[in-house]
Amino acid sequence: MLRIPARYVTGYVVEEYSQRERKFLVRQRHAHAWAEALVDGHWIEVDTTPLSWIFAEEEAASFWQPILDIANFVSFRFSVWRRELGTAQHPGLLWSLGIAVLIAITWFGALRAKRISKLKGPRAAAVRGQQEPASRQVRVFRELEHEFAILGLGRHPTEPARAWLGRVAREGASILREHQVDSAREIIEALYRERYAH
What we know:
Elements (H helix, E strand, L loop, with lengths): L5 E7 L3 E3 L4 E3 L5 E9 L2 E5 L5 H8 L5 H21 L5 H28 L2 H8 L7 H15 L10 H11 L6 H19 L2
Antiparallel strand pairs: 1-4, 2-3, 4-5
């Protein structure tokens, strides 16, 4: 036994930004858990979850998510407006606004469904696969993956980046220089800091 103090940590991966609200959105599917170990007086993250889990969760999001987001946003803004205005004197106005919001949501949903139904074959797959543009750290990490794959040291799809680096350092000792491993470590640590703020 190593007798290293450790703790189980739960939280959220905060990375989805809403231009409409100018705030980060945190959804239930962004919930995450990892471990931390006390090493040399500092808590360090020990997360073996593959980075692909974030993309898998996003792909599993409901088709109706954009409509629900708009409905939640309108509902929140409406409740703020109602509280500020004092709606006891305007019951007819509330019904009118509620019906207008319902019509707008229905119309938006119909347009979205029509647009998706027009997409066929590879084009549909391409649109469904669209994601946010990759950040600089993600692009650099992908280049590193490609570079090492050419050398026969590719990362397995479910292999955490830090575990992959450990394996690369062992298996690639005869073909990699020390500065290459150090550079790879810096890239991976920068990626972890971006993704998990550690």
